[in-house]
Amino acid sequence: MENTVTLTIDGESVTVAQGTTLRAACEEVQHPVPTLCWHENLTAANACRACVVEVKGSRTLVASCSRIAEAGMEVQTASERVLNSRKVVAELLLSTSDASIAPDLQSLAAISSADAERFSGGNTWAQPVREDNNLYVRDLAKCILCYRCVEACGDDAQNTFAIAVAGRGFNAHIDAGFGRDLPESDCVYCGNCVAVCPTGALIGKREFDLRARGEWDEDKITTTPTVCSFCGVGCELDLHVMDNQIIKVTSPLDHPVTHGMLCVKGRFGYEFAQSEEPV
Amino acid sequence: MNEVRRLLPGKQTSSSPISKERLVERGFDRALDYALALEPEEIISTVTKSGIKGRGGAAFPTGVKWSSVSKAEGSVKYVVMNADESELGTFKDRVLLEEDPLGALVGLVIGAHAVGAKKAYCYIRGEYREVEQTLARAIETLRHGGWVGPHGVEIEIRRGAGAYIAGEETALFNSIEGKRPEPRVKPPFPTTKGLWASPTLIQNVETLANVAILFAHDLHWFTAYGTQDTVGTKLVGLSGHIRRPGVYEVPFGTPMQEILDAPELGGTVSGSGRLGAVLLGGAAGTFLTPQEVKNTVLDYPSLGAIGASIGSGAIMVFDDTVNLEWVVTKLARFFAEESCGQCVPCRIGTKRILEMMETGELWTRTSDLRALGQAMKDASICGLGQTAPVALLSILERPELRHHA
After folding, report:
1. CB distance B375–A88 less than 8 Å?
2. Residues of chain A with C-beta less than 8 angstroms from the C-beta of B372
C-alpha cells in the first residue's frame, strides 16, 4: 500500500499510516513509550528525552515523539541503552524538581525503577513561589522545562508569546521577559499554559490555595460538561466541582473547537456562576 | 618533512591576504573560472572523487552532502560557512581566515554554484572581530571580480554572540534567524530543511578551503597527500605543554608522536619534558595515554580503534605533572556553562558531572558516571550533550592516567 509504512517494533511487524511518529506506532502495537514533554495537541518539543527508543543503524537513541516511522525501521523500546537513558532522565529530573503533583514524572520514575537519590544532593530548582496575580501561580520549583507552556502560549494555540525560555544550561527557565511579574508581562491569562503543564508548576490560584490548605481532594471532585456562555464560539467546558464549588475549568483535549484551549473568560471567569448577587 | 602548506599559504606567498593578487597567486581565480563554468553535477562529482571529509569534527563526506543539497527539493537554497570556532584548543579557522580568507570564500562560492544557492552566510564567532573585518574585505575583493553580487552569490556575514552551542549547525541556523540558538531535532537534516526551512549546505571553514585548493589544482595534485582512508591534509592546533604551540598543516596519516616531536611541528613536550597525556579533539575529545600517542597516526581508522577521533584537530598536550582530574573539572565547568538547557540529559547531566568533579568523585562513582555519561551520549539532542561526557569517560577507560601527579 502506498500510504503506509511497515516497520518492526520489538520484533513485531506493524504497518502504520505514512507520517506516523514512532511514539504513535509503538502505542499501536501496545509497546507504549513513556513521555513527559509530548502533548497530543502541541508540537513535539523533543526536550525531555524520556521517549527515546533505539533504532537500528542510528548512532544515538531517537526521540520517538517526533521521529517519523520509515519503512523497514527496526525499533527497540526496551533495550539496555533505552532503559538506562529513561532511568537517568527520571533520576536527573527527580534530583532537581519537586515531582509531588507530577503524575507523568512519577510514573516514569516507577516504570524505570529510578533511584531518586542517585544524582541528588546537588543544586536543585527550589525557588520561591511567584504569586503575582489572582488567576494562576508559578511554582517553578516543580518545573521540568518541558516547553509545553511556551508552545501553548506561542503558535501552537494562543499566539501571545508572553513566555519563553531564558538563561542557559542549568539556569534555563521559563520567563515572562526580564523576570517580570505576570501583570507587567504580555500575558493575557488564557491559562492555556496552566492547562498543559504536566507538573503543577503552573497552577490555578484556586487549586494552589486549596492544596496549600490541604483541602484539595481528588475523590471529592466531579466534572460537569457544559458549553461556555460568554460568547458564540461554543467552547465545551468541564467544570471541576468540589463541595458544590467550581474550583477549576478545563476543556476536553479532543474537542473540535477548543482542542483543550480556552480564553481568560472561559478558563477563569467562573465566579459569577455561583454568585448569590442579583445580576 | 612533516609540515605541508597547501591550505595555509606557502611561506613565500607575498601578496596581501585579501588582494586580487592573492587570488592569482593562490590560483583561486583559476579555480573560480574553472568551477563556475562546470555543470553543478560535475563539481559535485569532483568533490566526491576528491574524498574530502568535513573538517568541523564529524568528518562527513563532503561530496555526499553537496549531492543531497543539490537534489533536495526547493527553489531557494542557502550555503553557510561555519566560522563559529569555539571548541577548546581550536584556533585553526582563525589562522586560516587571517592568512588566507579568500580560500574558504572561494569554496563557499563554488559550493553555492554546485547546489544552486544565491545567498550565502558566513557565521563567525563574535570574538573574532578582526578576522571578521578581514573576511569582509576579502568578500569585497570577490565582489569586484564579479563572483559575489547580484550575478553571482550574495554573501552576508553574521556574528555570533559568544555561545559555544551556536556553532552546532542547527543552532547556528536558529541564531541567523534571530532565534535562541537551540539545536533542532534531526532529521530533518540541514540538507533538506536548514536555514529558513530551506535546503542548506553548511560547511566548516577548513572544508571550504579544501574545495578551493582542489579546484585551483586537480584531483591528482589534491590526492598526493593523505592515507587510503582520508585524503589530504589537516590543520591541527597544538597547545599546552608543547615547545612550539600553534597551527600546523600535516598530511593525514602523520604519526601522532611526530606531530608532538618533529622540530618543524610541536618541537617536543615542554614543562617537565615528559608526556602525561594528550587531549585530542578539544573539550569534547578523548584523552590519549603516552603509549597511545606512540602507536597511532592522525587518521580516523587508527584513532577510531582506540575510541578517539580527530574532531576539530585540537591537540592539547599535558606533561606528567598535570593533575588530569583538575583538567576534567575544568572541562565539566565549560560544558555546564555552555549547555543551552533544552534537553534533560545535557541540562542537568552537565551540572551533576561538574558537581561530582568538584567534590572529587571521579574515581569513587565510576558506575554512576558511566550510566550518566552513556545516557548523555545516547539521549541528548545535539553533539554538545552527546560529547560532553566523552573526555570524562575516556579517562575512566584509562586508569593509568589516574595516578600521575
Report:
1. yes
2. 88, 92, 119
Classify A14 as helix, strand or coil.
strand
Which 8-state DSSP code applies to residue A67?
A: P
Contact list, A121 vs chain B (CB under 8 Å): 355
Q: How far is B339 from chain A (nearest CA, A)?
A: 4
Is some CB atom of chain B closer than 8 A to the CB atom of A145? Answer: yes
Task: Render pLDDT for B6-60 as a digit per residue (tens, 0 to 9).
Answer: 999 999 999 999 999 999 999 999 999 999 999 999 999 999 999 999 999 889 9
Report yes or no: A169 at the B interface, CB cutoff 8 Å: yes
Q: Total domain count for chain B? A: 3
Domain-embedded: residue B227: no
Rounded Cα–Cα distance for residues A98 and A93 (Å): 9
- Which uninterrupted H or E stretch holds A84? helix A80-94
For the segment B225-281, what is each residue's pLDDT rounded down to a tens digit?
999 999 999 999 999 999 999 999 999 999 999 999 999 999 999 999 999 999 999
The ipTM estimated for the assembled molecules is 0.96
CB contact under 8 A, A93 and B378: no
* pLDDT of B405 over the 50 cut: no
Put simply, whether B333 touches A (Cβ < 8 Å) is no
In B51-196, which ranges are continuous DSSP H helix? 62-71, 92-99, 101-115, 129-144, 169-176
CA distance B288 to B308: 8
pLDDT surpassing 50 at residue A219: yes
One-letter identity of residue A118: R
* Residue B303 belongs to some domain of the structure: yes
Cell of A110: 516507577
Q: What is the pLDDT of residue B2?
A: 73
Which domains can be identified in chain A, with CATH numbers? 1-124 (3.10.20.740), 136-274 (2.20.25.90)
Sort out which chain B residues have CB atoms less than 8 A from A123's CB and list them.
351, 355
Please tell me if residue A114 touches chain B, with a CB cutoff of 8 Å. no
d(CA A45, CA B301): 36
Residue of chain A nearest B353, judged by CA positions: A119
Query: 0.90 cut: is pTM over it?
Result: yes
Chain B hits for A89, CB-CB cut-off 8 Å, are: 344-345, 375, 379
Question: Which H or E run includes B215?
Answer: helix B205-216
Q: How far is B376 from chain A (nearest CA, A)?
A: 8
**A83 at interface of B, judged by CB pairs closer than 8 A:** no
- Closest approach of chain B CAs to the CA of A246, in angstroms? 36
Domain range holding B271?
A: 233-319
Q: Which residue in this structure is represented by grid cell 586560516?
A: B96
Residues 6 or more apart whose CB falls under 8 angstroms from that of A270 comprise A239, A246, A249
Mean per-residue pLDDT over chain A, rounded:
96
CATH number at residue B367: 1.20.1440.230
- B349: cell is 547531566
Q: Which residues of A176-186 are buried (b: 16+ CB within 10 A; e: fewer)?
A: beeeeebeebe
CA distance B314 to chain A (A): 23
